[in-house]
Amino acid sequence: MNPQEHLVRASQPCCVGRREFIAGCAACASMFALGGRPSFAGECRAEICCARPRLRLVFTHIPPDLPTWPYVGYDYDGRKTELTAKLQEACPTVEFLPVTVQNRTEAENLVKTQDDIDGYVVYMLGLWTDAPQVIGASGKPALFVDDLYGGSGEFLVAYSAAKRNKQRVACVSSSRFEDVVQGVKCFECIKKLQSSVIVDVTDQEKLRGSADAIRELFGIKIHQVKSPEMNAAYEKADREEAAKWAKFWTRKARKVVEPTPEDVEKSGIFYLAMWDIMQQYGAQAIAVDCLGLFYGGKLSAYPCMGFTQLNNDGYVGACEGDLPSTLTMLTMTYLAGVPGYISDPVIDTSKNQIIYAHCVAPTKVFGPDGKNNPYHIRSHSEDRKGACVRSLMPLGETVTTLEISAVRKEISFHQAVTVENIDEDKACRNKLAAEVKGDINKLLSEWDRRGWHRVTFYGDHKSSARMFSSLMGLEFVEEA
Questions:
Q1: How confident is the model at residue 294 (pLDDT cuts 50, 70, 90)?
Q2: Are 356 and 453 in contact (CB under 8 A)?
Q3: Among residues 275, 223, 277, which one has the least CA distance to residue 37?
Q4: For domain 196-478, which architecture applies?
Q5: Binning pLDDT at 50, 70 and 90, where does residue 168 land?
Q6: Quick check: 403 and 450 in contact, CB under 8 A?
Q7: Which string of b and e fits 136-175 if b means at least 16 CB within 10 Å?
Q8: Strand-pair category, 341-348 with 454-458
Q9: May I ask the CATH architecture of the domain 54-192?
Q10: Which is nearest to 49 in space by CA: 327, 285, 363?
Q11: Can you say how many angstroms the Cα of residue 419 is from the centroid of all Cα atoms in its chain?
């Protein structure tokens, strides 16, 4: 299987297989290259994980003949039919199990049968049932939704209590239905994470970030691959195909500065080797201890170019064997469909800017179906060897920067607006400057406590990240 035919887990029968994928892309025949394989541009792709959540869709209200909000005689059944249909249309990969609950006893009986579900969507249509409080305390993640002017009073009381008691409850109190859909997609993300695999290529006995904590909290499988296995995949990778990848990357670049054609071809070989390893383990993400292994003479090339390609195509390639950042990238790939950009921080208080610096960045920052931004091919900065992408990322855009810690059980968060791709020879090749939203002095004051790296994503993802954190029982820390 070619990398651009995309990874399909054998344990996920709902995913698209090789033949079905190619057949499904028949209409995209003009995009195919290299003897019938999908094109390098990544226009045609399959979902990388198709785990499907089962959610109990709970409508709460008292009998319609009693006076309360919304009003006596309200057509609850009609409203439930309308909302169920809208949810099923907007979230076709979610299995909804609708039920009506009118009092505490019915809610208590309901939660006794929750073993086969992934969570609850509690739509509060009327007052007062005491059902949301029971469901919030069940231990399962729950999304509380206020059907405005119907369940508002009970929603406010139940959600406030749930947050104070640190229950796994998120909320939507909005006239915009898309906000409810956004909350439901958090359940999809959680389910996909539970079915996901990360490969960590490192010879270190202790992985960067607690693999055990990530496994326990998110259900993700993590496989350590040591350098001999990685090098074996490198040795057997198809050189002819690697050369075609190298030519493709070079042809698309605005310019190639330091790397030789041989450097870029080695990057193509390493990309194919990573893809082979991911296939072997059924992985959606790969992290490589690139600096330690390359500096130690244990790798023949840097993974940087391959990481860019993987991230452009909707997978995850993460630097330095950094598992928390890999987790963060995979989460937002599922939640928002956009790639992450791992970075080291540089703070310029005189301009209220943070500069996100690293030698790997995507060139499709708005996701696999978005536009390519221009890029240069450069050497890796610190040792001036190998090849990597300097991505000239879009300016004037809101970016959301996150880092998930399974150990601390928190998500670090800040936002900024991109202003410049800094051209400076010192430090990493990509230096994306952005004006911080909030207090930059607060941002720089606790970097030692929450890890060195952060991951930046194009777009305003505060709402979805906050809901995800609530459903996972994580603290949401606003760094700025």
A1: confident
A2: no
A3: 275
A4: Alpha-Beta Barrel (3.20)
A5: very high
A6: yes
A7: bbbebbbbbbbbeebbbebbeebbeebeeeebbbbbbbee
A8: antiparallel
A9: 3-Layer(aba) Sandwich (3.40)
A10: 285
A11: 24
DSSP for 157-208? HHHHHHHHTT-SEEEE--S-HHHHHHHHHHHHHHHHHHT-EEEEE---SS-B
Residue 80: is its pLDDT beyond 70? yes
Kindly report the number of other CB atoms within 10 A of residue 235's CB atom.
10
Place of tokens 């790798």: 299
Average pLDDT over residues 91-115: 96
Question: What is the amino acid identity at position 44?
Answer: C
Average pLDDT over residues 62-86: 98
Segment 255-264, tens digit of pLDDT: 999 999 999 9
Average pLDDT value for the chain: 90
Q: How many CA atoms lie within 13 A of 350 on its CB side?
A: 0
Give me the mean pLDDT over the 311-322 stretch.
96
Residues 6+ apart with CB under 8 A from 315: 7, 48, 278, 284, 285, 286, 333
For residues 408 and 426, give the distance between their C-alpha atoms in angstroms, rounded to a whole number.
33
pLDDT, tens digit, 9 for 90 and up, residues 7-66: 333 233 233 332 232 233 333 322 223 222 333 333 333 356 778 999 999 999 999 999
Contact present, 359 and 430 (Cβ < 8 Å): yes
Q: Which tokens go with 253?
A: 């670049």
Closest CA relative to residue 42, chosen from 364, 335, 358, 351: 364
Domain positions in the chain: 1-50, 54-192, 196-478
Same fold, 54-192 and 196-478: no
Helix (H) / strand (E) containing 354: strand 353-358
Sign (positive or negative) of CA dihedral 438, 326, 338, 177: negative
| Segment (H or E) for 247 | helix 239-252
User: For the range 76-79, what are the long-range contacts, defined as Cβ-Cβ under 8 Å and sequence gap of 24 or more?
Assistant: 76/100, 76/125, 76/126, 79/125, 79/147
- φ/ψ of 80, rounded to 5, equals -65, -40
- What lies within 8 Å, CB to CB, of 280 at 6+ separation is none
Report pTM: 0.91
Instruction: Compute the average pLDDT of residues 259-288.
Output: 97
